[in-house]
């Protein structure tokens, strides 16, 4: 089946879903738990950790996650779901790849393989009460997924025996073959002597001699569905007998309206034909239907999810629809365009009240798509923000909760650590996303991300303009934003051009309207990369018609952290440099001026707060009635973030002196701390709050830069400050 096209009507439904009133229920994030909180006081948290596969106790009071880098299971007490607490860690003596729960036990599949050709592993039962191991069964291969039947009688383990992706271009068909293991359970303890091995060879058309089972799940009839991801195949097995009841190809999909090239721009006019689904996670919807997440592996990945009948019929195919909703929310991972796009990897299903929900986890976009199961085509409900790289989720319907495990740990880059996040079903509107794009003339959602500067139309309250930075090097853009709606909406995108072609060598970090229909843009330079430090003027169509290069008196002291914001006061442009240059005293940075009438350059010095970690610099300068407003921030994230603030400098302090001489030091007044705003969605505090402006009615707006969803959660905060 082909995808349903993303149309203006579809986009309208997306906006309507995000803006729905409190009469409709929605999920909202209530807490984030960095798994570093499960280190003891004597342990060094400066080591890699992760949260990959997650399960919950039967009473919904405890979460258990697998931590591959640390080689164990982590426990999280969620008796107060809004305040999760670390509850211990158990070393498993190998690499845990999966975890499920049964009768007070955590059943962990642990990989102990010394090599790809000699796979090994075991299933361990760990007591949830005292966190000690009660049983261990040798599995005869490398486990990859564990599931427990709903009546607690059986455990199923997918033995993947994964291939060496560095061998033979990673093509499937590398022995030893994988298989399925079924184990009877007694009070949650696997009965090792009754282990049944189910062979899956000879079923798939793709590398049938080497099945690689990826994921398993039970329905109420104790039928097990197994995904053979690399083989693009699905198998239904009876747990009681081990009999293969059905098996069939996962099939292929034709996709349109997608970005297929990693090229520094968002272009959704591409298409792909005959793409293998190559499913990863699978969950039963009922005893007849199941849903798969089509992550892909070797050659496939159809960027969506599919609902099958167990007899092999395709009942629903999302096609590009899920990914296009991700685009509209600013979460599309452009760097993955040449591969598998947003890569749906995990899926969860739960019945909350009278409604059955499907949760689709996009690993690369770091979002969770929520759909309502209708028995036919599922109804889109919302997108949830997640941590970086959500790998799995578990539902706790009895408490109205959803929990996700987000495996990416950016320890080496000084970024966010791996997290467990919790969401609750509530009688209120979704609080995320806070910014969405509308469809363009072709019916495709406007692609956006990495917003780095903000300004307002002087005559229309709520009409704002933003720019993106050099993450989209081939697509410098001015975005029009309607902030009068909730969520705010990107209504248009104007490409910045030079002589009719996309302007190159720009790193746009600031924007201000010129009062005559055009814009002044500040570009942060990097001489070592051939990007000039400069200010550009464009007409209303985005065509550059004037360039102001930084003068030699300024450039002789250059460091790469250049222009980060721009505003216009009368006939004078004021540019905020991000950090100190070579001639700046410690904890000061320049506000540079340029008189458009005389051409004279000047500057004042601005005092920055001292950094306890990393650095502190400026991100924005914007004109208000009583002064200029400046964003000052550190480069820290999460619990280390300390300075994300708005300051005001009085207009009468802006008396520039000539460059090269003594510069006056201005004073500042703290207006707002943005950290509470950045905590309001109950995620971790993001690094880059980069845009601020006051609209024609005097209302303030701020926006964060999501780094193009590259080693980032992709979350964009659009903050409304009201009148200051």
Describe this structure in words.
The protein is mainly beta and 724 residues long. Helices cover 4% and strands 44% of the residues. A hairpin with an 8-residue loop joins β34 (463-468) and β35. It is elongated, with a radius of gyration of 27 Å. Mean pLDDT is 95; it is low at 1-6.
Structure at a glance:
The protein is mostly beta strands.
Mean pLDDT: 95
Give the total of beta strands. 54
Beta-strand content estimate: 35-45%
Which geometry do the CA atoms define? elongated
State the end-to-end distance: 53 Å
- Helical proportion, percent range: under 10%
Topology diagram in text:
Layout lengths: L7 H11 L7 E9 L19 E3 L5 E6 L4 E6 L7 E7 L3 E8 L2 E7 L9 E7 L5 E6 L4 E6 L5 E6 L19 E8 L2 E2 L5 E4 L13 E6 L4 E6 L4 E6 L5 E6 L2 E7 L11 E7 L5 E3 L4 E5 L11 E5 L4 E4 L3 H8 L15 E9 L2 E8 L4 E6 L6 E7 L4 E7 L4 E6 L12 E8 L8 E3 L13 E6 L6 E6 L8 E6 L5 E8 L1 E2 L2 E2 L5 E6 L5 E5 L10 E5 L5 E6 L2 H4 L7 E7 L2 E6 L10 E8 L5 E7 L8 E9 L2 E8 L9 E6 L7 E2 L10 E5 L1 H5 L9 E6 L4 E6 L13 E6 L1
Parallel strand pairs: 32-36
Antiparallel strand pairs: 1-31, 2-3, 3-4, 4-5, 6-7, 7-8, 8-9, 10-11, 11-12, 12-13, 12-14, 15-16, 16-17, 17-18, 19-20, 21-22, 22-23, 23-24, 25-26, 26-27, 27-28, 29-30, 30-31, 33-34, 34-35, 35-36, 37-38, 39-40, 40-41, 41-42, 43-44, 44-45, 45-46, 46-50, 47-48, 48-49, 49-51, 52-53, 53-54
Keywords:
mainly beta, five-stranded antiparallel sheet, five-stranded mixed sheet, 44% strand
């Amino acid at each position: 089946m082909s995808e349903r096209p993303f149309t203006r009507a579809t986009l309208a439904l997306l906006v309507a879903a995000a803006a729905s009133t409190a009469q409709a229920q929605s999920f909202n994030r209530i807490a984030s738990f960095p798994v570093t909180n499960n280190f003891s006081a004597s342990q060094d948290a400066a080591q890699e950790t992760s949260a990959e596969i997650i399960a919950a106790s039967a009473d919904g009071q405890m979460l258990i996650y697998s931590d591959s880098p640390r080689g164990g299971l982590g426990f999280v007490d969620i008796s107060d779901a809004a305040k999760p607490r670390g509850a211990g860690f158990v070393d498993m003596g190998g690499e845990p790849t999966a975890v499920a729960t049964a009768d007070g036990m955590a059943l962990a599949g642990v990989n102990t393989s010394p090599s790809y050709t000699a796979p090994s592993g075991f299933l361990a039962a760990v007591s949830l009460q005292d966190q000690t191991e009660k049983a261990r069964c040798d599995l005869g291969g490398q486990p990859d997924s564990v599931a427990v039947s709903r009546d607690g009688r059986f455990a199923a383990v997918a033995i993947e025996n994964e291939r060496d992706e560095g061998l033979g271009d990673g093509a499937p068909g590398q022995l030893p073959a994988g298989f399925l293991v079924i184990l009877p359970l007694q009070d949650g303890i696997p009965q090792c002597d009754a282990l049944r091995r189910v062979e899956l060879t000879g079923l798939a058309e793709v590398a049938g001699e080497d099945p690689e089972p990826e994921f398993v799940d039970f329905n109420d009839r104790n039928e097990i569905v197994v995904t053979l991801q690399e083989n693009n195949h699905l198998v239904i097995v009876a747990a009681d007998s081990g009999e293969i009841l059905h098996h069939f190809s996962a099939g292929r999909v034709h996709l349109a309206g997608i970005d297929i090239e990693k090229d520094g721009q968002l272009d959704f006019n591409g298409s792909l034909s005959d793409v293998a689904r190559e499913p990863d996670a699978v969950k039963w919807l009922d005893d007849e239907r199941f849903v798969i997440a089509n992550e892909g592996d070797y050659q496939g990945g159809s960027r969506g999810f599919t609902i099958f009948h167990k007899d092999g019929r395709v009942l629903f195919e999302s096609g590009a629809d899920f990914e296009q909703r991700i685009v509209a929310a600013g979460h599309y991972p452009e760097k993955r365009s040449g591969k598998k796009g947003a890569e749906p990897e995990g899926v969860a299903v739960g019945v909350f009240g009278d409604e059955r929900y499907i949760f689709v986890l996009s690993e690369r976009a770091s979002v969770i798509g929520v759909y309502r199961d209708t028995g036919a085509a599922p109804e889109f409900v919302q997108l949830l923000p997640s941590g970086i790289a959500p790998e799995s989720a578990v539902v706790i319907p009895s408490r109205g909760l959803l929990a996700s495990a987000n495996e990416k740990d950016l320890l080496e880059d000084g970024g966010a650590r791996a997290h467990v996040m919790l969401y609750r079903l509530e009688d209120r509107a979704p609080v995320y996303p806070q910014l969405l794009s509308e469809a363009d003339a072709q019916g495709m959602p406007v692609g956006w991300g990495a917003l780095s500067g903000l300004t307002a139309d002087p005559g229309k309250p709520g009409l704002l303009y933003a720019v993106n930075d050099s993450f989209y090097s081939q697509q410098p853009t001015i975005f029009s934003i309607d902030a009068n709606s909730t969520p705010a909406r990107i209504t248009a995108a104007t490409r910045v051009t030079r002589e009719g072609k996309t302007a190159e060598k720009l790193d746009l970090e600031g924007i201000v309207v010129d009062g005559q229909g055009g814009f002044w843009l500040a570009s942060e330079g990097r001489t070592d990369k051939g990007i000039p430090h400069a200010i550009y003027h464009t007409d209303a169509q985005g065509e550059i018609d004037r360039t102001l290069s930084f003068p030699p008196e300024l450039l002789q002291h250059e460091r790469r952290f250049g222009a980060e914001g721009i505003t216009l006061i009368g006939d004078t442009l004021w540019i905020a440099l991000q950090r100190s240059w070579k001639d700046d005293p410690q904890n000061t940075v320049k506000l540079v001026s340029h008189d458009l009438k005389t051409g004279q350059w000047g500057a004042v010095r601005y005092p920055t707060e001292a950094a306890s970690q990393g650095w502190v610099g400026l991100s924005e300068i914007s004109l208000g009635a009583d002064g200029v407003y400046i964003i000052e921030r550190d480069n820290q994230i999460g619990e280390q973030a300390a300075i994300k603030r708005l300051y005001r400098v009085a207009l009468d302090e802006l008396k520039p002196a000539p460059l090269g001489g003594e510069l006056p030091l201005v004073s500042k007044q703290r207006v707002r701390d943005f950290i509470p705003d950045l905590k309001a969605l109950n995620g971790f505090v993001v690094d880059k709050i980069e845009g601020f402006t006051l609209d024609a009615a005097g209302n303030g707006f701020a926006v964060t830069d999501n780094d193009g969803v590259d080693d980032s959660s992709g979350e964009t905060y659009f903050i409304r400050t009201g009148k200051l």
